[in-house]
Write a structure and sequence with these properties.
heterodimer, A: 183 residues, mainly alpha, 9 helices, B: 6 helices, rod-shaped
């Protein structure tokens, strides 16, 4: 049920102490935070884990102080950015400014990750099998054989299923952007 | 969020690749924050009320926690140390 809630509704549920809602909030943004720390800032696994846990600890702690519940995503993005910069600074012998620490093209990376979140959200509109196949193949980098075994599907059919599922995903976006028929 | 990307299959595939899952253990630890916070509050309250427990925590934190049924690996130990120092 929580998976279908808007970000704002989910934050509101978390604030009431709903632990299921909190688990969903972590689930919803875990890949995003992970990608900012590892792909955006290139943090090593142990540093990325510290940042990851600190982001969610502070999010949990500050839920009451959010000015706009719908803005949880940019808030988490900025927090991850800030904590990643602090982590890099803490590990350096030199005094570094934000500009020294931020990789070139970071804003583009953020835009791209925001787009990726939109695609993940749309993935939820596909059948469970399609969601699994696309996630396992593209995001988890699993082989046809692994996917076939996990989903009990002949591995020889995975490529065509990926193609069909991607086409369905494209149709979702095309449907969203199609102008309404004149009445 | 405004969509700024093309909706062809190649772009969609690239965007799916852009968000690999975080390690399961990290996600689980973050999801268990409400429980670990509750446990942290209980431990600090007990340490304030029970001097012997407080001294045991100072002497060997992890052992003292295990002795009363807590699993130290599932707790934010650094925060616990800080809070015990403050209390």
């Amino acid at each position: 049920m929580e998976a279908s809630l808007s970000d704002a509704a989910l934050v509101a549920r978390c604030r009431t102490g709903d632990e299921g809602a909190w688990a969903e909030l972590v689930n919803r943004f875990s890949r995003y935070v992970y990608a900012i720390a590892t792909k955006g800032f290139g943090l090593r696994a142990d540093d990325a884990e510290d940042v990851f846990q600190e982001v969610f600890a502070r999010t949990y702690q500050h839920l009451d102080r959010l000015r706009d519940d719908e803005a949880i995503r940019p808030w988490i993005a900025q927090l991850t950015r800030r904590l990643s910069i602090d982590k890099i600074r803490a590990g350096s012998r030199e005094q570094l400014s934000d500009d020294d620490v931020e990789p070139e093209g970071l804003d583009d990376t953020f835009d791209r990750l925001d787009d990726a979140l939109v695609v993940r959200e749309a993935l939820g509109e596909l059948s469970e099998t399609c969601q699994e196949i696309l996630d396992r193949f593209f995001a988890r980098d699993e082989s046809y054989q692994t996917i076939g075994e996990a989903l009990e599907i002949p591995s020889g059919t995975i490529a065509s299923r990926i193609s069909r599922c991607l086409a369905k995903l494209r149709e979702i976006f095309e449907g969203r952007n199609r102008a309404p028929e004149p009445s | 969020m405004t969509e700024t990307f093309r909706h062809d299959e190649v772009t969609l595939a690239e965007l799916l690749r852009a968000l690999p899952p975080a390690p399961e253990g990290w996600v689980r630890a973050a999801q268990e924050l409400p429980r670990s916070r509750r446990e942290l509050d209980d431990i600090v309250a007990r340490a304030v009320a029970d001097e012997a427990f407080r001294l045991a925590l100072i002497e060997d934190l992890e052992r003292a926690l295990r002795d009363v049924g807590y699993e130290p690996d599932s707790l934010p130990i650094e925060e616990l140390k800080r809070r015990l120092g403050d209390s």
